[in-house]
């Protein structure tokens, strides 16, 4: 399922800034490559909807998950190694490996929490018709592979782009990334464009 440990060890060996002792984060619910291909075949292909009316505030995110811990802090703890938090649940130390680019970080401020399927993309592929509660659930989903701790500037370069316009810098992560994208779109019954499907098909061919 997704990128293997042996493949990650190869990445670590080739990347001067990584340590082989640190595993890459693995969100829950990532399907196998074959399952992702089947789910992709079941998605509805349609032209992307309008951006009109979109606002990130329509997807309430970083809500309280437990105690003083919000979604961001929950993912930082899930995806990091030896993460220490203060009384407010803010991460004060730890180590994070960004699977998109292989970067390793020891300051939480260098790490963003990526929505694998961006909120804007979701809006244009069906979420504009959802209730606010449904959009909140999507933006804070801890059950499906929709949230991932990654290098901040890599996340910013991705922005709200789909796989037809942006792919992870690490080609070894194509299979996992495409599988996560397909699973999220399948679970939430979101549409995909023809170009999006072609890009996902190409990435899943690397599985």
Give the overall shape, derived from the CA principal axes: globular
**Computed Rg:** 17 Å
Count structural domains.
1
Structural class category: alpha+beta
Element pattern in H and E: HHEEHEEEEHHEHHH
Uncertain residue segments: 1-21
Number of helices: 8
Helix content: 25-40%
Distance between the termini: 8 Å
The fraction of residues in strands falls at 5-15%
> Roughly what is the average pLDDT, rounded to an integer?
91
Output the strand order for the largest sheet: 3-4-5
Which sheet architecture does the biggest sheet show? Answer: 3 strands, antiparallel
Describe this protein's structure.
- The chain is 36% helix and 14% strand.
- A 3-stranded antiparallel sheet has the order 3-4-5, with helices on one face. The protein has a two-stranded antiparallel ribbon with strand order 1-2. The chain has a two-stranded antiparallel ribbon with strand order 6-7.
- The protein starts with a helix and ends with a helix.
- The chain has one domain (5-204).
- It is globular and about 45 Å long.
- It is of the alpha+beta class and 207 residues long.
- It is built from 8 helices and 7 strands.
- The protein has helices at 5-14, 33-42, 71-79, 119-124, 132-139, 152-158, 174-187, 194-204, and strands at 64-66, 69-70, 80-85, 91-97, 104-105, 111-115, 147-151.
- The model is unreliable at 1-21 (pLDDT under 50).
């Amino acid at each position: 399922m997704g990128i293997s440990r042996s493949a990650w060890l190869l990445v670590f060996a080739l990347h001067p800034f990584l340590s082989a002792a640190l595993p890459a984060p693995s969100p829950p619910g990532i399907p196998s490559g074959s399952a992702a291909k089947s789910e992709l075949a079941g998605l509805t292909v349609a032209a992307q909807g309008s951006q009109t009316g979109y606002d990130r505030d329509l997807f309430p995110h970083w809500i309280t998950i437990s105690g003083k811990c919000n979604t961001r802090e929950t993912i930082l703890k899930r995806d990091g190694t030896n993460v220490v938090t203060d009384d407010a649940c803010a991460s004060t130390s730890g180590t994070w490996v960004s699977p998109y680019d292989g970067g390793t970080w020891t300051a939480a401020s260098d790490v963003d929490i990526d929505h694998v399927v961006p909120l804007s993309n979701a809006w244009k592929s069906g979420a504009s018709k959802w209730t606010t509660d449904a959009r909140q659930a999507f933006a804070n989903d801890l059950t499906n592979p929709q949230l991932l701790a990654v290098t901040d500037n890599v996340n910013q370069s991705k922005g709200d782009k789909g796989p037809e316009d942006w792919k992870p810098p690490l080609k070894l992560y194509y299979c996992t990334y495409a599988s996560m994208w397909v699973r999220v779109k399948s679970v939430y019954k979101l549409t995909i464009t023809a170009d999006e499907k072609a890009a996902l098909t190409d990435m899943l061919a690397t599985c």
